[in-house]
Amino acid sequence: MNPTIPLRVVHGACPHDCPDTCAIRVTVDGDRVVGFDADPDHPFTDGWLCAKVRPYLERVYAPDRLMHPMRRSGAKGHGQWQRITWDEAIGEITDRWKAIIAEHGGAAILPYSFSGTLGLVQMGISGERLWNRMGASGLERSICGAAAESAVIHTLGAKTAPAAEDLKHSRMIIIWGSNPASTNPHFMPFLQTAIRNGTKVVVIDPRRTTTARRAHLHLQPHPATDGALALGMIHVIFAEGLHVEPWLEANTIGWRELRDHVGAYTPERVAGITGLDASVIVDLAREWATSGPAMVKFSDGLQRHENGGQTIRSLIALAAVTGQIGKRGGGVYYSTSGYAIWDSEAAGHRSACPPRPRVINMNRLGAALCGEAVDPPVMSLFVFGANPVAASPNSGKIIDGLLREDLFTVVHEQFMTDTAKYADIVLPATTQVEQVDLHRPYGHRHLQYNAQAIPPMGECRSDWDVMRALATGMGYTESWLHDDAEAVIREVLDASRAANPTLAGITLERLQAEGTVPYTFPEPDWVPFSDGVFPTPSGKVELRCDRLAAKGLNPLPDYVEPTEFREAAAGTLTLLGGAAHHFVSTTFANQLSLMMKEGTPFIELHPEDAAERGIEDGDDVRVENARGSCVLRAVVTDEVRRGVAVSPKGRWASLSQGGRTANWTVSDRLGDLAGQSTFHSNRVTVTPERAAMAQPVEAESVAD
Ligand SMILES: Nc1nc2c(c(=O)[nH]1)N[C@H]1C(S)=C(S)[C@@H](COP(=O)(O)OP(=O)(O)OC[C@H]3O[C@@H](n4cnc5c(=O)[nH]c(N)nc54)[C@H](O)[C@@H]3O)O[C@H]1N2
Ligand SMILES: Nc1nc2c(c(=O)[nH]1)N[C@H]1C(S)=C(S)[C@@H](COP(=O)(O)OP(=O)(O)OC[C@H]3O[C@@H](n4cnc5c(=O)[nH]c(N)nc54)[C@H](O)[C@@H]3O)O[C@H]1N2
Ligand code: SF4
Ligand SMILES: [Mo]
After folding, report:
1. Burial of 633 by CB count in 10 Å (0-12 exposed, 13-18 middle, 19+ buried)?
2. pTM score > 0.85 for this model?
3. Fewest beta carbons within 10 Å, which of 82, 147, 572, 610?
4. Do residues 328 and 184 both lie within one domain?
5. CATH code at position 125
6. Which atom of ligand 2 is nearest to the CA of 387?
């Protein structure tokens, strides 16, 4: 520490894909960050960071961070690199793109980004402006929660959630297919307060998670049957006259059709579908209906299957039939991201750009690269803030695509990820302390500003700085492709304020000065929908949704068994891959201290499932289906229900046995709404790896 230069403290925000968007105080000594601490005064962050981000400076100062641009000097994926300058990199990329555009049009270029950072500038604007100007292919960003978002919008009209402070007013909370103890950790103290206040907590999850251990009741249905469970509960509520008819009459459309529709979901039939006892379903329905205020909290893990959208609509309907929506302590707790909608023209300047030629679903990346995208084929892929080889479905197919000799791949990254390995050019990215951004959370009701604390390390550049340099290389002179990050934030905020009363009084200057700025509400503890306003076409909760009918979908929430389950061979297990406690998707899964906490890549198996397959705790097992396979360490535990296996997401192939992860088995089939990924309707066989290894040796000796 230099005694003559005082330490500076700047406002930071956690950029990761987590609802909590923590407020951070970054302490800087000269050009070095010496402190990365939670803001003690923030009402949600409350002075503590999670286990993943507390050691963030290990990431910033990791010796293996990418520090300069590189060009591939060996075969694709072989890890041989030559250092180049930024001028060479930008020159080579834009020369290639100009040639591709001349021959195939802008549609042959595909930008691929997702959740490395959730910042407005580094993710949002960087994913829009340059690509719009270029006329590149768009990306359908549906790997995470697209079906739930679409279901919420179609049903309620807005993604708005109550304040966590209101949990203490609930008499009952169902945490449904959500694991906040790992994925939304700052929710947990509010839940604890509610529990101390007498709130009953039910967790519905095929796995006994850390969250489930805190609950009064834990139910473990078969995966992807939650829609049937909710519809069965609604059946009981109507059958017993426990619905709140005046509320339904005043605030919903289609409740009578829903009542008739759920006639088929008798507790006995739903018991057969879910694997729960009929009496459990009836009791839960009665308790839900009679102990309001009652709240259902869900997040995205629940809907990552083929029937995910309709499942979420069923859960919302459950809250509606008992009139819970808009009540303090009741209703639906999903996302707060809809409290501020960024003005799309200011964000993307689409009106000044050629029309978007097409949109490619990110879950179909491998398929798109391997020929599904035709006329033109994808000739160049630019990946930033994402690690599709390790995080996206059907990894083997993605690699097949990345190995195409005629594909020009650029990856902008902090580390040499499984995806960066296959690039033609790798560009080094800044971390959050080296860049400016504005963060709109999905788990609380404050905007968070992130100031740049230190200059970029090495030759690293932020996403937006790379986009600006690429725009120069392409010869694009529009000022909105060259404005700095602060100017962009100001432009988007100013344009968005008119349509968003929540942004009243929120300016760039205020954000820079205060770091955390709460949204403006009619009253500070505003309960969403308490005014009875639902911004749907009908102005009501659309239990029957004609917009879905117009798309050829069932206008009523429904349960349909995923195709993969219907077609599954006997003896297969359903593989779930929810959040790892110490990683955020594949981010942090290369950080030694966190890898040690998470342990060897594993798969949890129920003792009876393991015994049937001759598998013991600690064995290596092969997890396989027609798409691919990987080797994982068996953890035999009764925390998973029979027929279900769990291998948390996030592992890097290059750090896994055999160089492959569970995502080699994951289907790239799309779900029912919004092109949703279907990670959790995945069937696999699990066999002891020793047997699998013995076979080829035998075959060889026979051939001899
Ligand atoms: N520590 C940590 N935090 C994270 C992440 C991370 O990787 N690690 N990822 C972030 C991201 S990208 C997201 S989208 C959120 C996700 O946040 P969550 O949705 O809370 O996380 P998941 O673990 O994906 O899923 C939650 C639970 O759903 C269960 N589940 C899966 N299928 C079904 C089903 O069919 N029915 C029922 N009832 N339950 C089911 C899983 O067993 C899991 O425990 O978390 C974010 N936060
Ligand atoms: N098996 C299984 N897999 C899953 C899921 C599952 O349920 N099961 N869930 C999925 C879900 S919910 C999600 S959201 C996806 C997430 O998938 P991705 O969005 O691909 O997220 P990450 O794997 O975390 O990769 C983000 C990358 O961005 C980099 N990065 C961080 N900050 C920056 C930055 O400022 N600039 C640039 N250029 N790079 C940066 C990080 O180093 C990291 O490598 O994963 C999915 N994968
Ligand atoms: S990952 Fe979530 S809980 Fe952890 S510091 Fe970031 S926002 Fe906070
Ligand atoms: Mo996600």
Report:
1. middle
2. yes
3. 82
4. yes
5. 3.40.50.740
6. 20
Domain containing 136 equals: 70-144+340-518
Domain membership flag for residue 527: no
Closest CA to 278 of 235, 324, 331: 235
Spatial distance between the Cα atoms of 468 and 130, rounded to a whole number of angstroms: 8
SS3 for 265-320 is CCHHHHHHHHCCCHHHHHHHHHHHHHCCCEEEEECCHHHCCCCHHHHHHHHHHHHH
CA distances to 112, 122, 361, 474 from 138, rounded to whole Å, are: 9, 17, 9, 18
**Residues 271 and 373 reside in one and the same domain:** no
- Which residues' Cβ are closer than 6 Å to ligand 3? 14, 16, 18, 20-22, 49-50, 52-53, 185-186, 584
Closest ligand 3 atom, residue 584 Cα:
1
**Nearest listed ligand to the Cα of residue 52:** 3
Rounded distance, CA 176 to CA 209, Å? 12
- Least Cα distance to 392 among 682, 650, 140 occurs for 650
* Residue 702 in domain: no
The DSSP-derived string for 569-599 is PTT-EEEE----TT-BTTBTTT-HHHHHHH-
Last residue of a domain, one of 491, 518, 545: 518
Which of these three, 284, 311, 334, is where a domain ends?
334
Are both 309 and 436 inside the same structural domain? no
| Residue recorded with tokens 């089939």 | 669
Q: Are residues 231 and 137 in the same domain?
A: no
**Closest ligand (CA of 584):** 1
Confidence of residue 5 (pLDDT cuts 50, 70, 90): confident
Residues 188, 251 within the same domain: yes
Q: Is residue 360 part of a domain?
A: yes
Nearest-ligand number for the alpha carbon of 39:
3
Q: Kindly report, residue by residue over 221-234, the tens digit of the pLDDT.
A: 999 999 999 999 99
Dump the DSSP string for 637-697.
-TTB-TTEEE--S---GGGSGGG--GGGT------SSTT---TTS-EEEEEEHHHHHHHHH
Residue 593 sits in a domain whose CATH number is: 2.40.40.20
List own/partner pairs for 69-74 with CB under 8 A and 24 or more apart. Answer: 69/425, 69/426, 69/427, 69/428, 69/459, 70/425, 70/426, 71/424, 71/425, 72/423, 72/424, 72/425
> Mutation test of ligand 2: which of 414, 415, 574, 644 has the most ligand atoms closer than 8 Å to its C-beta?
414
**Ligand 2 centroid to residue 18 C-alpha, Å:** 11
Do 494 and 589 lie in one domain? The reply is no
User: How far is 470 from 127, CA to CA, in rounded Å?
Assistant: 13
The verdict on the CB of residue 143 being under 6 Å from ligand 2 is yes
For residues 351 and 323, membership in a common domain is answered with: no
User: Residues 353, 502: one domain?
Assistant: yes
599 Cα: distance to centroid of ligand 3 (angstroms): 21
- Once rounded to an integer, what is the mean pLDDT over residues 465-491? 98
Q: Which long-range contacts (CB under 8 A, 24 or more apart) does 518-524 make?
A: 518/445, 518/446, 519/339, 519/340, 519/445, 519/446, 519/447, 521/445
pLDDT at residue number 2: 58
pLDDT digits (tens, 9 = 90+) for 507-558: 999 999 999 999 999 998 999 999 999 999 999 999 999 999 999 999 999 9
Q: What is the pLDDT of residues 82-117, one digit of tens each?
A: 999 999 999 999 999 999 999 999 999 999 999 999
633, β-bridge pairs: 602, 620
Report the distance separating Cα 129 and Cα 385, nearest Å: 16
Number of domains making up the chain: 3
DSSP string, 509-552: HHHHHHSEEEPP-SSTTPPTTTT----STTSSEESS-HHHHHTT
Q: How many CA atoms lie within 13 A of 89 on its CB side?
A: 29
Contact between 389 and 369 (Cβ < 8 Å): no
Would residue 693 count as lying in a domain? no
CATH code at 322? 3.40.228.10
